[in-house]
Amino acid sequence: MLVVSVERSVSSHRGVPLSARVFRRVHERCGKVSGMTYVPGVQEPRAWQAWRATRSAGRIGVAGLAWTAAGAGVTAALTHAVPSVATLRRLRTRVMPVLAGVGAPDHVALTFDDGPDPASTPLFLDVLAELDLRATFFVLGTMLERAPHLAERMVDAGHELAVHAWDHRSMLLRGPRSTYRQLHRTRELITTVTGRQPRFVRPPHGILSAGFLLAARSLDLTPVLWTAWGRDWTSTATPLTVLDTLMPDLRGGGTVLLHDCDCTSAPQAWRSALGALPELAARCHDLGVRVGPLAEHGLRAPRAKNMIALPSVLQPVAAPGFSATRECHVGGYRE
């Protein structure tokens, strides 16, 4: 009975084999246990050896799974975020001209973001009518839902409505399903209110994601950012600062970004863009270029055909007035 009891103690204690030290003590007191001989510093009980090997293998297996999962998570995050590199305006203008909004060399596309707002958008429509200009308005679904009558007025005046999103949260903070719902819901509202399906889409903040590009392709929308902006959303913006910011990048084939609403900007910041419009139109006239919406801008790529799954290789193509010098693995649009 003593031998059996000791053997159980040596073999396991609550399912866990005892250490060599405990085995040695038992062996010294009780002699050989079940025919096993202990050699100090050389041999451990086979039960202990097997258990320790199993435990080590388990640790390695768990660690391996953890590293694999972490690696997969990092890869997914990078794939989701890589297109955001296209936020770099000069880079995308060189290597992704269609995404940047580079079109016909004798035309400048005039675009506005974040409206429509009953407090400001009608003033833009009035000034544009006086200047005999038409533009593309990238609307937020939340704003359009509150003022559908403005969309009707915009279309009647010859302006174009495009998709911005339902709200202004960055697409990098959304998953694929949420991103798709944002674009689809806004597209459907524009179609319902105006009777025309929008062709173009621009993400909030101009930040792309893999989910955004895939949703745009599914919805037959062409992503278009811009080649020139006026930084008209800041509290210090004035018509003069807007023009000074725009002019270095204002040329034929470009796309200009302004804002007709301050829902995501400094209060009353839209007044700087409104005040800059007459001089902007005059300078475009001096350059010998027409000003109009994206629909007249002559963007060459079909909406869905050139959208590809990520990761992708972007083939640079030189556009009039712009240079393309290298290929860049930064997004999901091939031009």
- Name the overall outline: globular
Tally of individual domains: 2
Second-tier CATH architecture of the largest domain: Alpha-Beta Barrel
Estimated radius of gyration? 33 Å
Strand percent estimate: 5-15%
Task: Name the CATH superfamily classification of the largest domain.
Answer: Glycoside hydrolase/deacetylase
First and last CA, distance: 85 Å
Helical fraction: 40-55%
Structure classification? alpha/beta
Low-pLDDT segments: 1-16, 30-42, 72-87, 302-335
Describe this structure in words.
Helix content is 44%, strand content 10%. Strands 1, 2, 3, 6, 7 and 8 form a six-stranded parallel beta sheet that branches. Strands 4-5 form a two-stranded parallel sheet. Helix 6 runs parallel beside helix 12 (270-287), helix 9 packs parallel to helix 10 and helix 11 (239-246) crosses helix 12. The chain is an alpha/beta fold. It has two domains: 2-58, no CATH class; 88-296, TIM Barrel.
Per-chain topology:
Blueprint: H1 2-11, H2 20-30, H3 46-81, H4 89-95, H5 97-100, E1 107-113, H6 121-131, E2 136-140, H7 141-146, H8 148-156, E3 160-165, H9 176-194, E4 200-201, H10 210-218, E5 222-223, E6 228-229, H11 239-246, E7 255-259, H12 270-287, E8 290-292
Parallel strand pairs: 1-2, 1-7, 1-8, 2-3, 4-5, 6-7
Helix pairs in contact: 6-12, 9-10, 11-12
